[in-house]
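G.,

No rush on this.
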Amino acid sequence: MIIPTAKNIKTITDLREKAVELLEATRKSGPTFIFHHSKPKAVMLSIEEYSNMMKMLEDYFDSLKGKELEEN
């Protein structure tokens, strides 16, 4: 699990003022947590991380379906 730290937390203002910079940092360093009024509101991922996560989820659900079919 990725934990929010000072390095990967940004604010809505940071996002508005430095969007391209944040995108590049996210690509290099991993997920970025976006906070608004000191509360977490979103997580920004690189497209590569997002694609990998979606593939893992698909594989997981396929394995669950496979186990279900084996049991029947």
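When you get to it, here's the other one too:
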Amino acid sequence: VNVTVRYWASARAVAGCDSERFGGLDVDGLQVGDVLAVAAAAHTGLSVVLDVSTILLDGRAVTASEPLTEGVILEVLPPFAGG
């Protein structure tokens, strides 16, 4: 399974990129939390931002247990000042 993660605000700053694709995630029952764990392992400090962020899938907020399918895009939206 291939999943794209888009980072916004402080998540972008910590990850050092706007988005990245995680490919070859060959897991039966792949969930949002599985992909976020891979992303956190790839970027020091990202887990702290993920813990307080809203994760969107197709424009709706999801939890870590949300199942994923091929080619989806997750968006990481950390809290930000004034919003």
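Helices lie at 10-15, 32-42, 46-52. The chain has a mean pLDDT of 93.

Enjoy the weekend,
O.
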